[in-house]
Structure formats: structure tokens, C-alpha cells
Design a protein that fits this description.
The structure holds two protein chains of two kinds. Chain A is an alpha+beta fold. Chain A has one helix at 19-28; strands at 2-8, 11-16, 33-38, 50-53, 56-59. Chain A has one helix and five strands. A three-stranded antiparallel β-sheet of chain A has the order 2-1-3, covered by helices on one side. Chain A has a two-stranded antiparallel sheet with strand order 4-5. In chain A, a hairpin with a 2-residue loop joins strand 4 (50-53) and strand 5 (56-59). The longest helix of chain A has 10 residues, at 19-28. The two termini of chain A are 20 Å apart. Chain B has no helices and twelve strands. Chain B is globular and about 50 Å long. Classes of the chains: A alpha+beta, B mainly beta. Chains A and B meet through strand 2 and helix 1 of A and loops of B.
């Protein structure tokens, strides 16, 4: 499924799944930025398991 | 050296615990509230107030948060407050009592918090006591029953 990672200071802090959530957070939290990525349906990645490489999310589920 | 005062031990009923103590039973549930939509970090929101109709008594608040696709960091996480006394009277005070951090267990919290406080009002401001919550991070799109978008509050009465 497509997920939006919430990024602050080049670190992933959380996730949302709907464009409407991105729109709301963009207004409420101007310091947030978002990176869309594809995540396996059965995976709930922790923020610390997400690395940002060349502007893309790389999951490290070890 | 003994402290001066009145001996009250004779007034304390012997604790009698028989059978199972199940805090999820309907007998203990005093009030339930599910968060829906968005909540801004650092803003206080009412969970219930003096107008909710609760009786006098000792309570604890149990909070379930699994909001990892709603901007939060809780993954299947349950928290419990310290006990507190609720007296459903009108108020005439500006006092605020912030709870210690709730103790939590579950998969992960990532340092996120749900804060609680008791907020009293002066009579001219309505004279109502409120139990309020405030998230440490802005939450959006909360919907109870949707995986990753859940935040619920379960008030348990633990004594009269």
C-alpha cells in the first residue's frame, strides 16, 4: 500500500495513508514534509526503520 | 518517635479480594471516548467534564493508542494513569492538575505521549471540571476501528 512518511529534519517521525491527512498536516505543521513510498500490506514499519536515500524511503526491517 | 495525630487504622476496612478483578468488565467501565479526526500537538481537548454525569469516586484512565498511520508513534500501545478522585460538583477555581506520564505497554511508543490533566474553571467561566488530553504530536484522520488510526479512552471506576 502507498504510505506517506512524515519527515522532519531529514528523519522519518511517523506515517499517514491519505492525501487528506497530508493536506491537513501541511497546514497544521509547516515544518513537516512528506515522502510517498510503497509499503508491504503486512508491514508496520517503525520510523527508525526508515532511511532516506536520495529523497526516497528505504525500509530496513532487520 | 510516633507522629502526632489521630489513629485511623481502626477505621480502615480490611481489604477483601475474592474472585477475579477484571478491569475490562462492564462493572468497572465508567466512560468511554474515541478520538475522531485531527488533534493538534500541545492543545488540550476534553475527554469528559462535570456535565458527563459521572459519580463521586476513585478512577483511573486507560488509553489505547495505535496511531502510526495518523501522524502518531504508538503501535498497539496501552497506557494507564495514576488514580484520581472525581467529584462532580460545580467548581470555582482556576487550578490545573497535570497527570504524571501514563505508564504504557505494547509494541512501541517511539517517545510519543498522550498527556492528561484535570482543569477546573471559575464559576464565571462556567464552573465545570474537565478531564483533558493533549497529544505530544499532531494527529490526523483518527478513526476508531481503523488499523493505525486509533485513540480511545476507557475510564475505569476503581472505588467509591
Amino acid at each position: 500500500m502507498k504510505i506517506f512518511a512524515i519527515v522532519v529534519d531529514n528523519k522519518v517521525i511517523s506515517f499517514v495513508t491519505e492525501q487528506e491527512q497530508v493536506d491537513e498536516l501541511t497546514v497544521l505543521e509547516p515544518t513537516y514534509s512528506f515522502i510517498e513510498f510503497e509499503c508491504p500490506d503486512d508491514v508496520h514499519p517503525l520510523p527508525m526503520q526508515c532511511e532516506i536515500v536520495d529523497g526516497k524511503i528505504v525500509l530496513n526491517l532487520e | 518517635m510516633a507522629l502526632l495525630g489521630t489513629v485511623i487504622s481502626s477505621n480502615i476496612a480490611s481489604p477483601t479480594i475474592t474472585g477475579s478483578a477484571n478491569i475490562s468488565s462492564s462493572l468497572a467501565n465508567a466512560h468511554t471516548a474515541y478520538a475522531s479526526g485531527g488533534y493538534t500537538a500541545g492543545t488540550w481537548y476534553d475527554i469528559f467534564t462535570g456535565e458527563t454525569g459521572l459519580n463521586n469516586g476513585m478512577y483511573i484512565m486507560v488509553c489505547y493508542a495505535s496511531n502510526f498511520t495518523a501522524g502518531g508513534g504508538h503501535y498497539f500501545w496501552t497506557m494507564c494513569s495514576v488514580p484520581f478522585y472525581w467529584a462532580p460538583t460545580s467548581t470555582n477555581s482556576g487550578s490545573t492538575f497535570t497527570f504524571p506520564d501514563m505508564l504504557g505497554t505494547g509494541l512501541a511508543d517511539n517517545g510519543y505521549k498522550i498527556n492528561l490533566r484535570l482543569k477546573l474553571n471559575f464559576a464565571v467561566d462556567g464552573g465545570v471540571m474537565r478531564l483533558q488530553m493533549s497529544p505530544s504530536h499532531t494527529l490526523t484522520g483518527l478513526s476508531w476501528g481503523t488499523n493505525g488510526k486509533e485513540l480511545g479512552f476507557f475510564l475505569k471506576k476503581i472505588g467509591g
